[in-house]
Amino acid sequence: MGNRFLMTFSVGSFILYMGWALYFTRSRIDLKVELESSYSELMLLITVESFSGILSLAWGYLGDRIGRKRMISIGLLSAMPMLLLGLTKIPALFLVLAAFANILFMVSQPSIMTALVIDKERSGRRLGMFNCVGSLGWAVGSYTMAYLSENLGPWAVYAASSMFIIFSLIIFSVNYPKSVERGVESNIHVLLRRLPFPTLGVSLAYMGIVYSSTILSIKLYYELGTNATLFALFYGVLPTLLGAGVNILIGVIADKIGGYLVTLISMISYAILFPLLYLSSGMLMAVLWIIPLYPLLYLGVSKFFSDLAPLELKATAMGAVSASLSLGGVGAGLLGPLTDFYGIDFSLFLSEVLILGGGLFLYAVSKVPRLK
Question: Would you say 175 and 264 are in contact if contact means Cβ atoms under 8 Å apart?
Fold first, then answer.
């Protein structure tokens, strides 16, 4: 698999991230502001989105066994509920449709990422390039959300999102390398024995990250005067443009020092950033918001988990990445009522405890054996 493969998958990444950026930047506003939902309902959206990834370990294993390309094709079904999101005005139905859109897409995600991590020595660089181009797509999608919302309405945002997701999955499926389309028989129990402790540490920290970032995103929206264009610019466009610039560098660093250390660095960085965001206001908060930490976390965890797995179980390992992050997301969603009852101050303090606790746990179990 050479440069042509990476270029083709990078094009697919751009289109895919553009589609999901449209959804993510619009859905929070629709549910919390337009549909006048509570913080509990907003966090429930995070829960249903995250729940979709919990089964990723199973989807990855199925891809290893029955064929990774088949799993990508199933993801095409996610376009229908995504399209319908723009037509509902009922919060409960909005949440159900969001759940189905995310669940159906996540069937394909581990198999997509597997093609990038087969080569252990270059997996960090490939992930970096894939995420770099995807970040550019996210930036374009975030800005496009504002344009479509103001000129055509929210329904156009979800229609465009479903179209881009379909197009990207077709690109991945048509160009999937035949040499890695299916794994060979392997003892999955060897891998599963190495995953629980890293999974728990990552899930705890990510729970705190999602909890804080969701609450603070609403604060950012109001700090920017409820201006959809400014919100799209600072929430999605600028962070992802900066993220695109650092993704390749992070990939190179991850290949040198390992995904484990990159993951720890990202957790510490988040624990420092969130209090600063809470204490700041106006444009200062907006400037702090664009610091690109998520590429550090996602690439670090992806590299960390993929290095634990043999070649024939790479899709399973990438499924474990999504499952770990999704467990954290579900946990964050379940914490939503605490914000309604105890306020934002308590919620952000709890987030700090979770982030630092997850990082300390991951550090404490750093001697977990790894597959070579």
Answer: no
Please choose, from the candidates 69, 68, 50, the residue with its C-alpha nearest in 3D space to the C-alpha of residue 60.
Answer: 68
Handedness of CA 324, 330, 334, 339 (dihedral sign): positive
Distance (Å, whole) CA 80 – CA 3: 33
CA pair distance 137, 133, nearest whole angstrom? 6
Question: Mind listing the pLDDT tens digit for each residue in 325-365?
Answer: 888 888 887 787 787 788 888 889 999 999 999 999 988 87
What ranges do the domains of the chain cover?
3-364
pLDDT digits (tens, 9 = 90+) for 256-311: 888 889 999 999 999 999 999 999 989 999 999 998 888 788 888 888 888 877 76
Q: How far is CA 327 from CA 132, 205, 254, 367, in A?
A: 25, 10, 24, 23
What percentage of the chain reaches a pLDDT higher than 90?
23
Termini Cα distance of the chain: 22
Considering the entire predicted model, what is its pTM? 0.72
| Four-way CATH pick for 3-364: 3.40.50.1820, 1.20.1250.20, 3.40.630.30, 2.60.40.10 | 1.20.1250.20
Which segments of the chain does DSSP mark as H helices, in order? 3-29, 39-54, 56-66, 68-74, 79-85, 91-106, 109-117, 123-151, 154-174, 188-192, 196-223, 228-232, 238-257, 259-279, 282-289, 294-306, 314-334, 336-364
Tokens 């959300």 — which residue? 145
Residue with tokens 């859905």: 27
**Closest CA relative to residue 142, chosen from 34, 11, 225, 239:** 239
- Residue 4 burial by Cβ neighbours in a 10 Å radius (0-12, 13-18, 19+): exposed
Q: Which of 174, 171, 146 is nearest to 160 (CA)?
A: 146
Question: Which residues, in sequence order, are CB contacts of 29 under 8 Å at separation 6+?
Answer: 221, 228, 231
Residue 93 CB partners (closer than 8 Å, separation 6+): none
Q: How far apart are CA 253 and CA 303, in angstroms?
A: 11
* CA trace torsion 212, 50, 83, 17 (10° rounding): 70
pLDDT value at residue 179:
67
